[in-house]
Amino acid sequence: MFQTFSPHQRLAMSWWSNPDTRHYDAIICDGAVRSGKTLSMSIGFISWVMSNFRGGSFALCGKTITSLKRNVMTPLLQLLGNLGFTCLECAIKNYVDITLSHVTNRFYLFGGKDESSAALIQVMTLCGVFLDEVALMPRSFVEQALARCSVTGSRLWFNCNPGSSTYWFYQEWIRKAHEKYALYVHFTM
What's the rounded Cα separation, in Å, for the pair 74 and 180? Predict the structure, then answer.
């Protein structure tokens, strides 16, 4: 699957534990397609969760649940299984329980394809959220997902491919990363 990780990939996996970057509340990774940002971020997200929470609820979000499963969950669950994690998926209710060494956390899967998607994530309390291809999601869905992260120590994980500099996510998050306490990492090939 991979030989070695690049410096950007290693940063995306470990920023939350690195003394130089752990003060951030969020990470934004954008850049080249096929640069390894999704895999490295998803490994980092699961590592952060399993190191810091027990019995927590988290959201993994994609444009659709189908694209989330194809782009994130299938490679991630295969890797986790190879590393000794137990992953129990409840497809009907769109969640996965991930366990390692008697620590279990629940990961709800959401698709953020249109304005009505925001209603799907309402009333949840989350410890963190991972948004894959966030630039393809409507602002209302993203903001609702972020508002659900009310647990002390919660963090936000965003990735996207380069988009228009006029798009809302670029204007509100990438350009304002410093004031939002977000680590911004631009991936290249």
Answer: 31
Pairing label, strands 103-111, 57-62: parallel
User: What count of Cα atoms within 13 Å lies in the side-chain half-sphere of residue 189?
Assistant: 4
Quickly list H helices, the chain.
7-14, 37-52, 65-68, 74-82, 118-121, 139-147, 168-169
pLDDT digits (tens, 9 = 90+) for 157-187: 999 986 777 789 999 999 999 999 999 999 8
What is the average pLDDT score of the chain?
A: 92
Q: Which residues pair with 185 in a beta bridge?
A: 29
Q: Is the pTM of this model over 0.70?
A: yes
Q: Looking at residue 115, what is its pLDDT?
A: 83
Q: 3-state DSSP call for residue 44?
A: helix
Confidence of residue 143 (pLDDT cuts 50, 70, 90): very high
**Closest residue by Cα to residue 177 from 1, 30, 38, 6:** 30
DSSP structure class, residue 126: B
Helix axes 74-82, 37-52, angle to 10 degrees: 50
